[in-house]
């Protein structure tokens, strides 16, 4: 029985490590930008509601068929109510579309870059593993035939 030495895993190259760091950093920045924007919309809507400066929000608190809608793109809070049979929409809070799109691009691009950096290199996928035995060296070994046997 032979002892097989432990195999060593090849480390990632510095270039792939740097790409992973940059891509995950971009994804994190994008998620933070989106989170701050959407939280800001919610906080601004709550402050406007507490101040009572917006008639639509004041009607919402009374409960007279008013709806507050939060939209993803463009990121904004819209208060919708019917006034004398006509539908009135008031934008209570919003984040510029460029900021929201920029955050989405950073988040999605960073996620895609992170996945790409984590995948093995194309040449490494096609090559044999480092610990592969040469042909004919693997498998069980048959006992040697007794001496003098043809």
TrEMBL record:
<keyword id="KW-0812">Transmembrane</keyword>
<keyword id="KW-1133">Transmembrane helix</keyword>
<keyword id="KW-0472">Membrane</keyword>
<feature type="transmembrane region" description="Helical">
    <location>
        <begin position="18"/>
        <end position="41"/>
    </location>
</feature>
<feature type="transmembrane region" description="Helical">
    <location>
        <begin position="98"/>
        <end position="119"/>
    </location>
</feature>
<protein>
    <recommendedName>
        <fullName>DUF3592 domain-containing protein</fullName>
    </recommendedName>
</protein>
<feature type="region of interest" description="Disordered">
    <location>
        <begin position="129"/>
        <end position="150"/>
    </location>
</feature>
